[in-house]
Design goal:
Largest sheet: 4 strands, antiparallel
Number of domains: 2
Strand order of the largest sheet: 1-22-21-20
Helix content: 10-25%
Distance between the termini: 62 Å
């Protein structure tokens, strides 16, 4: 007799649809720009006599001197807040430092309140965390459903919250949600256990048919199959992404400064449905992508190389990110300076 499909598989179908790329199969970053991408073992050598990398710039900003704190830069993870503060985590000592305009705070431990401000960045690529676990301040459980609270408004309830992102200034959000699912996660587990513990194949089949009938009734009562399709929920005015687009897309909040975009196959669009950029799938999925505020430039970052659409290619760098300075947006990146034994940052008008 054929094996009976697990009830929990049915429950997770909608979730899998929502997390198509969220699970890391599309536009996966290396630790969401938190972990440096450094090739080779040069960081562990005595580098003070080595030449400056091709990514060095004459007006570089000092981020942290390694010798002063006795840190090997290759053992650092780095995260950047939108206000310019930089969190540096030394894996060897399990200590954190915060750099702002060359001034260093630390060492600190993970439970320090100053470190907790970076929680979203540090944990953003934890694939095992559900949206309600990553963003408990915004997503609350209400019985077997969820409410999204943002900017003084409440959205929901929803049976499932999939992809959930917040803009860099934390004034915009977007999420893919399912209004109703026929069986909650806890119910699905109980059903699976009941079927697994049934004494005979006939009993298993009877339970499976019973549960299937119950789910059909709940689907009908909850608005039909339409209520089980993923939908876009956002506070961005004029958002108009159709449900068919959402199914095979992922929301991104790190491609354009303080904007939330949607990536579908090889096209990047705003939430009003306007295409901003088309790149081949391999390029989009290989690393990070940045789009300028005026949509005239874009940059891709892969394996330590930043390639800008105007023809510039900059090598031997890490942690590219968008940075606001005096009302202007820059594409910033970091590099290690052997001469100064320090992490430096360059900022390009973008």
């Amino acid at each position: 007799m054929k094996r009976i499909i697990s009830i929990s598989v049915v429950i997770l179908l909608a979730a899998n649809t929502l997390s198509y790329s969220q699970a890391g199969k599309f536009l996966r970053n290396v630790k969401n720009a938190v972990q440096q991408e450094i090739l080779g073992n040069s960081a562990k050598e005595n580098t003070q006599t080595a030449p400056e990398p091709p990514s060095a710039c004459s007006d570089a900003e000092l981020i942290m001197e390694m010798g002063k704190y006795k840190i090997d830069y290759s053992e650092l993870n780095i995260a950047v807040l939108s206000d310019g503060r930089i969190l540096l985590y030394d894996k060897l000592s399990d200590s954190y430092y915060i750099s702002k305009s060359g001034v260093i705070e630390g060492p600190m431990k993970e439970n320090d309140q100053r470190v907790k401000q970076f929680r979203d960045l540090v944990n953003s690529e934890e694939e095992n965390l559900k949206p309600e676990e990553k963003y408990p301040e915004y997503i609350k459980r209400q019985g077997d459903k969820f409410l999204i609270s943002f900017g003084g408004k409440t959205y929901g309830p929803f049976g499932l919250v999939g992809n959930f992102v917040i803009s860099s200034q934390r004034d915009k959000f977007a999420a893919t949600v399912v209004e109703n699912i026929p069986v909650s996660e806890s119910e699905g587990k109980k059903m699976d256990a009941a079927i697994e513990n049934a004494k005979t194949e006939a009993e298993k089949m009877q339970l499976a048919m019973q549960y299937a009938q119950m789910m059909q009734e709940r689907i009908a009562a909850g608005g039909g199959t339409q209520a089980m399709l993923p939908k876009l929920v956002t506070n961005i005015p004029g958002a108009a992404i159709n449900d068919a687009t959402i199914i095979n897309s992922v929301l991104k909040a790190d491609m354009k400064y303080n904007e939330i975009l949607i990536v579908s196959e090889n096209t990047v669009s705003d939430l009003k449905g306007k295409p901003l950029l088309t790149l081949d799938f391999a390029t989009l999925s290989a690393g990070k992508v940045f789009i300028s505020s005026d949509n005239k430039l874009y940059a891709t970052y892969t394996y330590g190389t930043l390639t800008i659409s105007d023809g510039r290619k900059i090598q031997e760098l890490f942690n590219p990110h968008l940075l606001p300075v005096n009302g202007k947006i820059y594409l910033a990146y970091m590099y290690f300076s052997p001469k100064r034994n320090a992490i430096m940052r360059c900022s390009l008008p973008f």
